[in-house]
Amino acid sequence: MSNAPQHNNMPKLNFDLSKLPNLTDLSAENLCENVQAINSLCENPRLKAIMERLVQHSHAFVREVGLTTEEWMQAIEFLTAVGQKCSPIRQEFILLSDVLGISALVDNLNFPKPAISTGESIASEGKGEYMLVLGKVVDTEGNPVKGVTMETWETDDTGMYDTQHDGQFAVDCRGQLKLDDDGLYKFRAVRPVPYPIPNDGPVGDLLQKLNRHEYRPAHLHMMLSAPGFEPLTTALYFEGDPFITRRVITKPSSKIHQLQADTCFIRFPCSPLATPSLVSNRR
Ligand SMILES: [Fe+2]
């Protein structure tokens, strides 16, 4: 035990206080370091690693945006409202996660797409209207990209992803293709439909304040990777979908990447450090 003076009325502790860092003289400069030191006693290595990064990134975020006390309180009130909106049949935190793109990121990292061959279907039968997706992955010079791995996923005609259906989860409407050196891809898929996100909670309020529409246009997600190129995560939309130009995520005047008829081109950057770009179809 520590040599520190013993005081009366001290609770019995199951750890050695002397192992804890001295937290006096806390300052903006050493707060992160001190929190990391306290958390370093965690015996679960995975939890310890996650918390270390969480503290590091969240402290850096606060510094980067110069978060004010008022803004911090607004954030707490917002998160409180998100929690209060949750019920056994309503999960507002998942909705918030969706809006921030975190759900899709976690989904992409944790749900490997079934491998399919050229011409095969990523969707099982009875999921709606089917389509053939054809295209070519080229670099910014127009040359085919070699060694492309394409991951793609979509909703069915109910506007739901396979992970959102009640009952037992079954992988559907998602797949992974290894493209030949000509960069051509061809697969069968169900035509996705536009779908609304719930808008009667704090996330809906946030979207309203941000002037964002709650409808997502129908889209087909694509994540592309190839040796020597930056990975590209994007989505293809359908010409004529009214929610493309009405959604606030993309300005009406900005370039919309569309899947028209049966063919589209996807361009990779020519430089590994360049910003990936998706260019429009050829029609
Ligand atoms: Fe989506």
Explain this structure.
The chain has two domains: 27-67; 111-268, Aromatic compound dioxygenase (Protocatechuate 3,4-Dioxygenase, subunit A), CATH 2.60.130.10. The protein is elongated. Helices cover 27% and strands 19% of the residues. Strand 8, helix 7 (242-246) and strand 9 form a beta-alpha-beta unit. The protein is an alpha+beta fold. It contains seven helices and ten strands. It has a five-stranded mixed beta sheet, with no helix packed on it. It has a three-stranded mixed beta sheet with strand order 4-1-10, with no helix packed on it. A two-stranded antiparallel ribbon has the order 5-6. The longest helix is centred in the N-terminal third of the chain and has 21 residues, at 45-65. It binds fe (ii) ion. Residues 219, 221 line the site of fe (ii) ion (FE2).
Topology, pairings included?
Elements: H1 31-39, H2 45-65, H3 69-85, H4 92-99, H5 102-110, E1 130-139, E2 149-154, E3 174-178, E4 184-190, E5 195-196, H6 202-209, E6 215-216, E7 219-225, E8 232-238, H7 242-246, E9 258-259, E10 263-268
Parallel strand pairs: 1-10, 8-9
Antiparallel strand pairs: 1-4, 2-3, 2-7, 5-6, 7-8
Helix pairs in contact: 1-2
The structure holds fe (ii) ion (FE2).
